[in-house]
Amino acid sequence: MKDKRWPEKILLASPRGFCAGVDRAIDVLNRVQAADGGEQIYSYHQIVHNTHVVRKFEEQGVKFVEDISMVPQGKTVVFSAHGVSPEIRESTQKRELNWIDATCPLVEKPHREVKKFAEQGYTILYIGHAGHDETIGTMGEAPNHMILIETVEDAKNVQVPNPEKLALTTQTTLSLDDTAEIVAVLKARFPHLTAPRSEDVCYATQNRQDAVKAMVRKGAEAVVIVGSSNSSNAHRMREVAEQALKMKFLGETKKGSAYLIDDVQELDGKESFFSHLNVVGLSSAASVSEEKFQEVVNWFKERGSRIVEEEVVADESKIHFASPQRLRLLEQQSF
Ligand code: SF4
Description:
By secondary structure, the protein is an alpha/beta fold. Helix content is about 40%, strand content about 15%. Iron/sulfur cluster (SF4) binds next to helix 1, helix 4 and helix 8.
């Protein structure tokens, strides 16, 4: 029976969930497994940052490694969607591994920019998060030319050898608002800074953050983001939701929370977080399947939410990335 003290309405963000880069990486790993006919397949780093996707592949027999030396000589390894540094590529060649690269094409763009600027003698400021696979991979392109900027404070304090030869690039999954603030500080301090026309934050990150903000504008009083704790994309979506909610419900202490959950099980016992609200917004990060998202939708419906509306801010249905050429060759060889 419907609980009278339960949100009447849930809003679903659109787009949400798998982006074209994640779709492609999952497809690559599935196809490598199929083509390699029962051979042990390795993935260098989590193929995408989602515990459920990784677990499913582990059940299918894929081994995930954090150190490339753990892949036995001559075996097949897939590079994750987050990209790898030249050092890893070199070590892969040396050990004669059969590699297939599932790096998202949008992550490759900052790699190319970094290489180009380093060759021209520039120092490159990289806005990103320390320790993230993508940051390690991109900064590994020119470690002696790069400086990591994580915060506005870093931007205020960074010292560079030659302010006239300075370039900027960014991680693809940042918060657009935070990045804009950091870029503004850098541009004010270094007028000669060469920056890409738009930051390297990708379309999927931008659309998912815009869709979360649209739900808050439309009336969501709390937001639930489905995504794993090691997903940068998921954390930024939660932060964007929290900031939008704070601005809207300034001073209203019972409204305005944004939650990040890995799956529906994390909601059990948390009914009191939502029971006083009228509208809750739901979305999922770029590495989360629609199946996992719908489990959360059902959790709200089972408890009495009756009206389900989609907040569509962009159509991504036509965005697809071609599969890597080496995968197509591997498939031809296996038939
Ligand atoms: S979030 Fe963006 S950069 Fe990352 S895999 Fe998806 S499309 Fe590529």
